[in-house]
Amino acid sequence: MMSSPYASLQEELVFNFSKRILGPHSLFCPDNFGHSKEPADLVWVADRCAILMYMQRSVASYEKKTRHNLKQLRKWLRKWRAGQPLCGRTAGASGTVTSFELHFTDIDHIVGLSVIGDGELGCEYHADLVRENFAHKLAACSTITERCLLELARMGAGPRDIVHWLSHLHGHRRRITEGQLIGAIRFKDSADLVLVRETIAATQGPVFALPSAIDQSSADKFLGNAQAYVAATFGSVRGHEVDTDDIGRLTVDLTLSDIYWFGILSALYASRTAAPGKHGPLVLGAKRRSGIYDLRFVLAANSKALRERFPDLAGAIGDTPGLTMLQSLDVGRDSPWGMLLFHPRTGPSYLRLQIEQLRSATLSAI
User: What does the pLDDT look like over 128-164, one tens digit per residue?
Assistant: First the structure.
């Protein structure tokens, strides 16, 4: 068996969840407090909402592992409310270190995530715990397995995707197996890919090298290619000049479907844009509505063509909340050069709205 390149589960989760997020973001392993006590194993904070993750791996029963995690969550909620700050730090893509000191008053909603591995497993929503701790701002709480969380992380999921699956568990109102949740995650992943593909095909014409149906093996192969384009495009704009809170707040609110859209268009337009010395389109672009956001993607054969068309593009981009990704093939089709234009939102994030809806559904249920 090959050894893992990661020192811990937390390290692998941070690496995978962070791959597509731009700007500084509050995804970190918190510092200990008191007598080496941990507030949580991993914390993700966005738009005054905190996801606290607690991890327990043992051959013990499902109940014992879950009880351990939820006890740690309850203890920390009391400490946090009493005045103990949540501290930690993370290194950004540009090498800068961001430190956090979050007080209970800095957060409006808390999501508890109990993550278990080995032995007896299961996935379950803990509605009773939410009702008992609503005064401590606990808005949602579930137990899932390590494998389920890693599945989401490796796909490139974000906080909104995590909350979606907590809502899925809340709808079951009972414990389900790890296999049932992973099956649902994979089916939705493939279905999202097909839906995005069909939407693009309806406006852009046939999309190359895509699976014609929901088939996991062919979908996985294409997604690997699409995500490589996304990584190259997002990676090309990482750096100090884009390390702003606004970009972090916007990109953390994107879903997997949004990421697939960027990835498919990156690959599609790279195949259709004229190569040096060839005739064909020099600039291609598309637009997608995602909730309150307008997402736009523009790819040019070279930066000269991009500069020449930029006055026209600026008018089409507008100033609605959203993200515009500009990509140029100057340095090659496998290593595109990219930049971002963005307009931050003024209202609450979709993540926040999803958490509030789940909280209301939990508290109103009999």
Answer: 999 999 999 999 999 999 999 999 988 878 888 999 9
Strand stretches in the chain, DSSP E:
26-28, 42-46, 49-57, 86-91, 97-102, 109-117, 124-125, 138-145, 283-290, 293-300, 322-328, 337-343
Say how far apart CA 218 and CA 223 lie, in whole Å: 9
Token duo for residue 18: 């962070």
Taking the C-alpha atoms of residue 203 and residue 210, their distance in angstroms, rounded to an integer, is: 16
Cα angle 339, 354, 133 (rounded to 5 degrees) comes to 125
What is the pLDDT confidence band of residue 189, given thresholds at 50, 70 and 90?
Answer: confident
Distance CA 113, CA 92 (A): 24
Helix axes 350-364, 159-172, angle to 10 degrees: 20
Can you give the pLDDT at residue 93?
A: 55
Model pLDDT, residue 356: 96
Pairing of strands 49-57, 109-117: parallel
pTM of the prediction?
Answer: 0.83
If DSSP codes are grouped into helix, strand and coil, which group holds residue 184?
Answer: helix
